[in-house]
Design brief:
This protein is α/β, with parallel strands linked by helices. It is 27% helix and 19% strand. The strands form 2 sheets. Strands 2-1-3-4-5 form a 5-stranded mixed sheet, sandwiched between helices. Strands 6-7 form a two-stranded antiparallel ribbon. It is globular, with a radius of gyration of 16 Å. The termini are far apart. Bound molecules: zinc ion. The site of zinc ion (ZN) has 6 residues, from helix 3.
């Protein structure tokens, strides 16, 4: 008999994005991304982290202080990593992200041909960075969809995800 309790595509791919976020070394923000093509195949995956060859232990993770002392100067966002890690044309694909994309990632998403952003959290909705993202997505015709009814929880030895 066919199971009734299987998870749908949206929960499946957001679950992959969520799992990817668990790879992040950032203690204040863990973000994951998963790019899926029109055939529901995963074509890119990423999380926020330092660039290749830049030691996680030597580069700063702090948000406070002068620019050079903060993570903002160095970290690659999950969406950027997912786009750069993909090995195929992303035209017409969609990206699952655990947090609504910043304006810099919005530019990359648009330029890569991604046509829909499916996100969980939107905690910085009213800041200018995210207003710029929405302005860009609206102009470029990128659909924005907040995923509701996300029920996947990832459990590690350190604990279980808090419900979003
Ligand atoms: Zn970003």
């Amino acid at each position: 008999m066919k199971r009734e309790s299987y998870i749908g595509w949206d929960e499946y791919f957001m679950g992959v994005a969520n799992l990817s976020a668990h790879r992040s070394k950032d203690d204040t923000s863990q973000v994951g991304a998963c790019i899926v093509n029109q055939r529901n195949r995963i074509v890119g995956i990423g999380y926020n982290g330092m660039p290749y060859g830049c030691d996680d232990n030597e580069f700063p993770w702090t948000r406070e202080g002068g620019f050079l002392e903060t993570k903002y100067a160095y970290v690659v966002h999950a969406e950027a990593n997912a786009i750069l890690n993909s090995s195929t044309d992303l035209e017409g694909s969609r990206i699952y992200v655990t947090l609504f994309p910043c304006n810099e990632c919005a530019k990359l998403i648009i330029q890569s041909g991604i046509k829909e952003v499916i996100y969980l959290e939107d905690k910085y909705h009213d800041s200018d960075v995210f207003k710029a993202s929405r302005k860009l997505f609206n102009a470029a015709g990128v659909k924005m969809t907040q995923l509701e009814h996300y029920t996947v929880r990832i459990t590690t030895n350190e604990g279980t995800d808090k419900p979003l």
